[in-house]
Amino acid sequence: MHALYFAAVVAAVHFGTLAGAHKYSRSRHHLFARTPQYTTNKTYTVQDFYQAEDFFNEWTFFTGSDPTGGNVAYQSMSDATSKGLAYVDDCDNSTVLAVDSTSSIPAGGNRPSVRITSNKSYSSGLFILDAAAMPVGCGTWPSFWSVGPNWPYAGEIDIVEGVNNQATNQMTLHSGTSSACTIDTAVNTSTSEAYTGHVLGTNCYSTPTADAGCAFSDTDTRSFGYGFNNANGGVFALLWDTSLGMSMWHFARSEIPSDITNRAPNPSNWGVPAGFWSSQTCNISANFYQHSLVIDTTICGNWAGGAYSSSGCPGTCSAMVANATNFVNAKWIINYVAVYQ
Ligand SMILES: *[C@@H]1O[C@H](CO)[C@@H](O)[C@H](O)[C@H]1NC(C)=O
Ligand SMILES: *[C@@H]1O[C@H](CO)[C@@H](O)[C@H](O)[C@H]1NC(C)=O
Ligand SMILES: *[C@@H]1O[C@H](CO)[C@@H](O)[C@H](O)[C@H]1NC(C)=O
Ligand SMILES: *[C@@H]1O[C@H](CO)[C@@H](O)[C@H](O)[C@H]1NC(C)=O
Ligand SMILES: *[C@@H]1O[C@H](CO)[C@@H](O)[C@H](O)[C@H]1NC(C)=O
Ligand SMILES: *[C@@H]1O[C@H](CO)[C@@H](O)[C@H](O)[C@H]1NC(C)=O
Q1: Is the CB of 77 under 6 A from ligand 5?
Q2: What ligand is nearest to the CA atom of residue 287?
Q3: 303 within 8 A of 275, measured Cβ to Cβ
Q4: Where is the signal peptide (predicted)?
Q5: C-alpha 181 to ligand 5 mean position (Å)
Q6: Of 58, 156, 193, 255, which residue is the catalytic one?
Q7: I need a labelling partner for 153 at 20 to 30 A (CA). Which of 3, 22, 44, 210 fits?
Q8: Which residue segment(s) compose the domain that 100 sits in?
Q9: Average pLDDT over residues 212-219
């Protein structure tokens, strides 16, 4: 949620000096010979399966001003419900979380939207989001992410994120402790591929004023925005394993592994992940703990607003806030979020 795509390179350079001061103990020499291990053969069993009304009963509607500076007015559950911005579609049990697309809002004003946070928190596990659609439209900034207490100390994991007309999904970790955390690019070799995504920045260390984090961009245009929706959505998975690292996959609707559909997920069947953060260069348990899950859509703000002029979208971001029609498809249609341990 804090990722700034356009700032990633700058931040990676900026934090190069800091990384040197907190070097991880394992020598680089070892890294080249190692086979990347991004999954286990562990058997996962469901811990929490959120579906339909569960998002209203077991998650909390955030009503503060947007911490990322967006042009949104986050709604309480009762206001979101009465405005038709949060509801269960009786036809298929999907949960819809929408941006207001009917109100007259002035340019630069705050358009009603929804941000929900799971009451429960997690410090590892296998997390799966199945969505039929995600919010699209100029100025929008949707995200499915997780965050611990006292940001950034307990870290942040951005599983689905992007802005404006972004073509592919961005996956980002933000670490906030002095325990070094970087993407280990040495694990991806010609004989042993560890991730399919493009590395955008390798240093995960984030502060309130420099929070690009370490990121991958997916290579599949079905992983975000219109491409995701045109493929009837799909699944995103995060394997958060304190001994191996973090791995993330995206599957378009037609390619969802049957073990996921059958609720007996086995990541060792899923192939190379889109993003992989090896525990060899990041102490996972020191940097990421007690995370609540978050689903939101903001508008403009730090990232969607900052990147707007180079996005190909018309006019300015603050003017687009006033364009109700632009937000007709700015909605999440969520089939479920599952947490396995
Ligand atoms: C999972 O089990 C299969 C079959 O026993 C084996 O080939 C594979 O290496 C195992 N994967 C991991 C990550 O342990
Ligand atoms: C809809 O979701 C609710 C809440 O999880 C669940 O109890 C119910 O069985 C679901 N209905 C269908 C048809 O899947
Ligand atoms: C989740 O938290 C909200 C806000 O504190 C509370 O109203 C709700 O009852 C909680 N849900 C559960 C299932 O505990
Ligand atoms: C990862 O390794 C594969 C196989 O060698 C290669 O095709 C790909 O370009 C590498 N990815 C990155 C981001 O270096
Ligand atoms: C990772 O951090 C935890 C908590 O600070 C610590 O107990 C553990 O020893 C660290 N592991 C490594 C490999 O440094
Ligand atoms: C308003 O949004 C719609 C849908 O994105 C777009 O077609 C139209 O050009 C926008 N109007 C203005 C004035 O930007």
Answers
A1: no
A2: 5
A3: no
A4: 1-19
A5: 12
A6: 156
A7: 44
A8: 3-340
A9: 97
Q: What is the pTM of this model?
A: 0.91
Token pair for 278: 């090896």
Cβ atoms of 73 and 126 within 8 Å: the answer is: no
Q: Which two tokens stand for residue 310?
A: 């180079």
CB 187, CB 30: distance < 8 Å: no
Q: Which residues line ligand 2 at a C-beta cut-off of 6 Å?
A: 51-54, 93
pLDDT in tens, 113-172: 999 999 999 999 999 999 999 999 999 999 999 999 999 999 999 999 999 999 999 999
**For this structure, is 156 an active site residue?**
yes
Q: Does residue 161 have an active-site annotation? A: yes
Q: Is any atom of ligand 1 closer than 6 Å to the C-beta of 39? A: yes
Q: Which residues of 185-197 are buried (b: 16+ CB within 10 A; e: fewer)?
A: ebbbeeeeebbbb
Give the C-alpha distances (Å, rounded to integers) separating 210 from 9, 176, 302, 304: 12, 11, 12, 16
Residue 162 tokens read as 């992007």
Which residue carries 């947007």 as its tokens?
66
Q: Which two tokens mark 61?
A: 């509607």
Q: In CATH, what number is assigned to the domain containing residue 196? A: 2.60.120.200
63 lines ligand 3 (CB under 6 A): no
Q: What is the pLDDT of residue 31?
A: 41
